[in-house]
């Protein structure tokens, strides 16, 4: 090999290494498991339910209804020998017509009525929810909002099984969680769960229970000169201090 | 002779004016598709676009891509349905769709609910508010009849500024009960009618470039609820 060609090859190799180093930290991951809602009453949210058009209403009551009950998945907590105050969210639904009815399960601020969205820390990779099913062929979906206000629906699966089951879903790459402009992190917010009834399934009376809504999220953020100015809360603090 | 010509002219002009008035008055829902001895027409709210993630949009990836979300706001000219006044039914949002064209040409995009939206009763007309940005695009409504057969109806052009309420009449079903848009099933009086499965915008090729924004709000129907309301209170509910 001629000396000139050797130099050129070396240059190209060095350039490749430099490019790799420059973008290398894009792949750094710090996965953390976070319980977003335990349904034990220790979070800053209450949970409400809302039904679609043909939800049953009588003179005495209207459905769907929700309540917090003392029950838990044994696969998660065992028989609770320590006697912890474990709770789960119960949902009771009734509809007048079979069809594509839905029930929304959504968080509200503690003691309030307005829907609140739960901010997701970092870039979410997986989420899971323990759901008690009574073998009805309903489907459950989770709704997340991205930084542009667009809602992304992730199907968590069917509820046609018996008892507690951990429904786990991987959050696909197509859901944007970072943007070009600073701050690069464009975290999602959790909006609600929705349960759909298909037209062939009975809807006269059903109960479903939720427990432990958990996520696996990547909380790593690359450092750079001036990264402090890309933290919204810090920027607010600095601007307030100036006034 | 001249006098007769003038009289004839006056009569024909008068007739034209009368015909125009009939047309301007819009669809007479009382007369549309009468196929039952008694009717109980009522305006009902079908979709106010209040629930996140219920509407999506799509177009051919060769032509462009779409983004759909809800926005706070609404047309000021919207009048509440009398029965809904005082019920505090939320009406904060409208549906917005942005279309980014990849190249100019004949294309269309659809905005659709994730599940069909049923309308109770026998639907006579469907109306909705649209902000169409004064493009020569054409709006169609996509519906399904009782048998699940798909139909599309032309709603109107989007060549106007700001919000406008557009209305489309649903053609009555054929006398034989099988052809056309069939809405009635004589077995069940709580499961008749049509379902809305989407809206399609046929894009004017001369204006299919850059980005296009369209907003929808407040889909309503004038529907005959006679059979639904005449349902006996002691009648059983078929939902088990």
UniProtKB/TrEMBL annotation, chain A:
It comes from the Bacteria. GO terms for biological process: bacterial-type flagellum-dependent cell motility. Residues 1-24 form the signal peptide. Keywords: Bacterial flagellum, Periplasm, Signal. InterPro entries: FlaA. GO terms for cellular component: outer membrane-bounded periplasmic space; periplasmic flagellum. It is found in: Periplasmic flagellum. This is Outer membrane protein. It comes from Treponema primitia (strain ATCC BAA-887 / DSM 12427 / ZAS-2).
TrEMBL record, chain B:
It comes from the Bacteria. Keywords: Bacterial flagellum, Cell projection, Cilium, Flagellum, Periplasm, Signal. One of its GO terms (biological process) is bacterial-type flagellum-dependent cell motility. GO terms for cellular component: outer membrane-bounded periplasmic space; periplasmic flagellum. The keyword ATP-binding does not apply. Residues 1-19 form the signal peptide. It is found in: Periplasmic flagellum. This is Flagellar filament outer layer protein. It comes from Treponema primitia (strain ATCC BAA-887 / DSM 12427 / ZAS-2). The lineage of its organism: Bacteria, Pseudomonadati, Spirochaetota, Spirochaetia, Spirochaetales.
